[in-house]
Amino acid sequence: MVSNVTVQPPLTAIPADLRTLADYEKRAEMHMTPDVWRHVQEGAGRGITLAENRAAFDRIGFLPRAMADLDGDTGIELLGRHHAAPILLAPLAYQRLVHAEGELACARAATALDTGMIVSTLSSIPLEDIAAAAHALARDLGKKPAPLWFQLYLQPDREHSLQLVRRAEDAGYEAIVLTVDAALKPAGITLPPGVDAVNLAGMPRPRQTSVPGGKILLGTPLAQSAPGWEDLAWLRGVTRLPILVKGLLLGDDAARAVDEGADALIISNHGGRVLDGLPSPVELIQNVAESTAGRIPLLLDGGVRMGTDVVKAIALGASAVLIGRPQMHALAVAGLPGMAHMIHLMRTELEAAMAQLGCPTCALLGPDRLVALSR
Amino acid sequence: MVSNVTVQPPLTAIPADLRTLADYEKRAEMHMTPDVWRHVQEGAGRGITLAENRAAFDRIGFLPRAMADLDGDTGIELLGRHHAAPILLAPLAYQRLVHAEGELACARAATALDTGMIVSTLSSIPLEDIAAAAHALARDLGKKPAPLWFQLYLQPDREHSLQLVRRAEDAGYEAIVLTVDAALKPAGITLPPGVDAVNLAGMPRPRQTSVPGGKILLGTPLAQSAPGWEDLAWLRGVTRLPILVKGLLLGDDAARAVDEGADALIISNHGGRVLDGLPSPVELIQNVAESTAGRIPLLLDGGVRMGTDVVKAIALGASAVLIGRPQMHALAVAGLPGMAHMIHLMRTELEAAMAQLGCPTCALLGPDRLVALSR
Amino acid sequence: MVSNVTVQPPLTAIPADLRTLADYEKRAEMHMTPDVWRHVQEGAGRGITLAENRAAFDRIGFLPRAMADLDGDTGIELLGRHHAAPILLAPLAYQRLVHAEGELACARAATALDTGMIVSTLSSIPLEDIAAAAHALARDLGKKPAPLWFQLYLQPDREHSLQLVRRAEDAGYEAIVLTVDAALKPAGITLPPGVDAVNLAGMPRPRQTSVPGGKILLGTPLAQSAPGWEDLAWLRGVTRLPILVKGLLLGDDAARAVDEGADALIISNHGGRVLDGLPSPVELIQNVAESTAGRIPLLLDGGVRMGTDVVKAIALGASAVLIGRPQMHALAVAGLPGMAHMIHLMRTELEAAMAQLGCPTCALLGPDRLVALSR
Amino acid sequence: MVSNVTVQPPLTAIPADLRTLADYEKRAEMHMTPDVWRHVQEGAGRGITLAENRAAFDRIGFLPRAMADLDGDTGIELLGRHHAAPILLAPLAYQRLVHAEGELACARAATALDTGMIVSTLSSIPLEDIAAAAHALARDLGKKPAPLWFQLYLQPDREHSLQLVRRAEDAGYEAIVLTVDAALKPAGITLPPGVDAVNLAGMPRPRQTSVPGGKILLGTPLAQSAPGWEDLAWLRGVTRLPILVKGLLLGDDAARAVDEGADALIISNHGGRVLDGLPSPVELIQNVAESTAGRIPLLLDGGVRMGTDVVKAIALGASAVLIGRPQMHALAVAGLPGMAHMIHLMRTELEAAMAQLGCPTCALLGPDRLVALSR
Prior knowledge:
The structure is a homotetramer. In chain A, helix 11 links the parallel strand 10 and strand 11. Chain A has helices spanning about 20-30, 35-40, 50-60, 100-110, 125-140, 160-170, 220-225, 230-240, 250-260, 280-290, 305-315, 325-355, and strands at about 60, 75-80, 80-85, 85-90, 115-120, 150, 175-180, 245-250, 265-270, 300, 320-325, 370. Chain A has an 8-stranded parallel beta barrel with strand order 4-5-6-7-8-9-10-11, surrounded by 8 helices. In chain A, strands 1-12 form a two-stranded antiparallel ribbon. A two-stranded antiparallel ribbon of chain A has the order 2-3. The first copy, chain A, has 12 helices and 12 strands. At the A-B interface, strand 1 and helix 12 of A face helix 3 and helix 8 of B. Chains A, B, C, D: Belongs to the FMN-dependent alpha-hydroxy acid dehydrogenase family. Chains A, B, C, D: Keywords: Flavoprotein, FMN, Oxidoreductase.
């Protein structure tokens, strides 16, 4: 982790004024270096997609139902497993940028709160160690581990991609999440000492190598190594784990991914970090749901910051949502307890919103409870 | 009341630069502690509903009528009583947070200006004392007391709810306002010494008691104690007072409340304090009016800050409006005279707006005088 | 005029950085007391109408015509007189609030630039002196005086209204402008020594005299003295001068005013100073034009700050526009030369815009040159 | 170039934090005098068109295509020449205002990056010297020079216009760009010593010469010297070079320009500098494309600041775009290397965006990849 005299160390207990994820976000800046803060928060280009990921949620209003029965719970079934709530931790690169325990703290908090976690190819702790930490805590608590999935960035050499899949299988990961929208994104930050893509040790990394006047990207080896449909087919052939495709936004691509063997999709624009101008997932998920017609579960990633956002995503057709940047905020502010508190806040808000809508189960949430706000 | 060296005491006379409710709001911050100020002003979540309660009024424009006859007045009949203007004081919790005289000052100002007042279950002065103060002043002034209504939060034990109803009946309250939208809202502020829910002394309070990993809200005793339709039926059976249901927003729920015996409805989203994303009452009241088809009066609560807002609400189908946060502002700034002045300002603005529209009575105000502003 | 150590005296020459009316507005604040500045700039309520008067212009875009012939001029005929451009000075109260020469400076600048001026009942220089100053300068310059009109606020006593009309006729005013939308507006500022409604010396003024609990406005003598259709009929009967009605916004009222004998209308919401929520004149003028079907000229008042605004108003059906607050800005900054410069800037911008649109005469400007901007 | 103690000299190397054209813009202010900065950045009137040129791009969203083949390049054919990317340098006046090397630095950077450049009539280096610098560098680099075009402002005397055309032909310019929308625009800045319209040495300049009370613009000699259709016909008759008409926005004018012999059009509102209220080129280009039906290429000028903007313009029917103000920013910050870096950044972003959209050639970009963002 970066050390810097002006960066405050993480808290070890949660102060009373941290009552929402927005409180964590506001406080997080003082627990990161300016470079890391910018890296965590920034979006591509002018930040239009980044802002839109929030604004699209804010434009959706609720139609409440008064005095309804409130007997129910937030549980869902997904890819054969029970989840206590329709909320998972999104795959994030380099979580040790903001806290020394990095992904280990996240995995333990997720375990304690029965919350699924997706570990990134670019995790700053080896994928095996993360799984081991989660499993050990589950044993200590006498409970079944929460689902762990592995997010895969395809490597220039297919053999290296296969190694990652096998390691994930061996470590007990229960699904592979293939990201298809970020192969051409520049790194965006110089990693400080002690933070690295440890899972890729010894593997060559794809790089943009343009020179002025020469080819830049199109037609270069970097472009050729970007994921294609044949890569999904290959992956389908080499693993029995369920495969989720992450980074689609439109119905056509989604339908094809189902045809090619995906078991679930994560509708995402990569948190607004890749192509500025992409619409938000919550704007598009109904279109995707129509195109895939219930054949597979859809997860939504991007802009989720409150329990009401979860309700909106579910009501529009998502089976569950991913939480991204708020992990970095909570982890920076207070490590493991921060992560656990953040997840608990989100779930508490989710239940309160479901109660106000008179919908005590996820299955009862539908577009009839939503209305466009006239803003 | 909270004491703090930096908090200015209430004024005892009204300075000339307090000419609108906005002036009171601006000044009020210096007469409260930061905690109380935040508590008074804040909305749920990102404050979208809180802002929308204002924005929805601001989007409505007027179509004036020139050179009309201006002979008339603002009086209305409501639940068998005459009101000098279609304006009542909304039920607010803990008014002693901002002024030592709290609800007593409000009741006296309301009496002096012939304005109805709704006293909260969570008043910081016993409901009997508030009624007594109003009645005593009316006697002194030789006038009939303005209508006093009692707002009821159902208690976990029905017997306690019944006690509150009987006490209100005995103290001369003329109607019961059953709030149905806030049973699951957290308190939001730690009460300072001397401010408490005195009406509930000796009664157990509903509480959220979740532990990480366990049930949070849905399916818990707290959720079970939230108001249901059977509670309205029960209340209808135990009192002869008119019953208003507060906290509905949609036509379906409103129609059912009428069927279940409500005598009037207060269309409200609880001032944006409960579920962020709810539309504003003024946006929805026409829908409610259509569903209830004139069977009972509709009152509107939320965002009313100017005389023009009253005109808009009436023109869209409300019989009257409630004033909420401006009470806290005026009370903090100048206690009883502040409250009286605030009510007078609102009524003066109301008359001026009616005059500009060429509508000298409330009955003449209709949607034909309104237009959506192109903003 | 108010004196105050922090208020800068008016300039006597125009610095090079005053190139637009916006430059004058920005600079004007330092040439007025804070009270006067607020009084000049403020709108009623939350300022929605004030802002809308600008925003409505800004939402209108242009469709240019390239490489057109530019032979023409901005002249128009109005009520039997030629105007060099479709721009007149709006009636403003108390112009000595911002400059010792007040209305005299305006009248002389208007004369020098062949611009019509409407003198207010509430002018701070006697109406006779203003006319005399304009006529004297026209004689000196060897030109015909620009049109002078007199704006009439009806007085509680009809005899006093008649006196004002007769004085205006005697002083050479060429039309009477009857304002019908502001009888109930409070004064808004305490006049400093030396500034007063000199035309009304000796006449009783209408006042709001409400007491808490009593009647406020509707049904009071003040409301009864507001202008009615019978007052327009009376005025029509006592003068042969053309009568303009100022303060209408809608087609119905406009059509009736024509039926009742008005010779022209000034579409106005009183600069957003009277009823907050009124739409802007530029938003409504097409509706008025349809209702009056070319029977009389329409003038537009409100929000005009640039030459492009004049083009938009004319293209939508106005015969001419009035300039209001910019007079106070220019007068405060630089007195007579400021006023003359401001008028010249406006006309230069007007010609440049007409040229870009390929429309070298006002008659060529029509709605086919406009488009709603997608903002 | 202006010298001033507070103006920082241009950088000679590119710091790592200059990663986008926005970074250059932010930094540029410290490398210009306040007067020059204002002159570079400002728009006409209230800056509505200036802002709209950006906002119109920002309202356009993308529909991505996942996992597509990325073999291709950004090359286009235009007026018989190959361009490495659909990006040209717009004609700008007086580039020595921001850097001593002015247009020479631009021409060399353009040559190094195979980018077309349009030289302004108002260049601050003689047009012959600019062409010579470009050609010399191309020889040194052993490559064919990038296309150089000459932008023509018609002079009051046609003979002087002809001289300019002949000089451009002689110097090897490959096309004439006739600007038709700015003849009546005031200069806007006082040129410092050493910066001048050197191409016009010895020629009289058109001037606005209004006096208060007299004619201002319409019907004056200045208006008569504005470009007309007969001027285009004349130009067509005196040169064999391709002629582009710059400054049209609408289909009707565009179709006529094609009929009159234009070989290509540059859709432009002059960067928002001429008539405030004009819509943006990107808003109108589809209309122009329909009117001209593919008869000639359309170029788009105005608001282009990112690679995604280029994609949007191409997808809507442009063959290429011009870059305007970013030249001044890059030139001020770092002269020739700044210009080259800026062009390279733009092209890198362009390729990345094309890749995300799954469109590896310009021909594949169409409106099916775009969507209006719901903002």
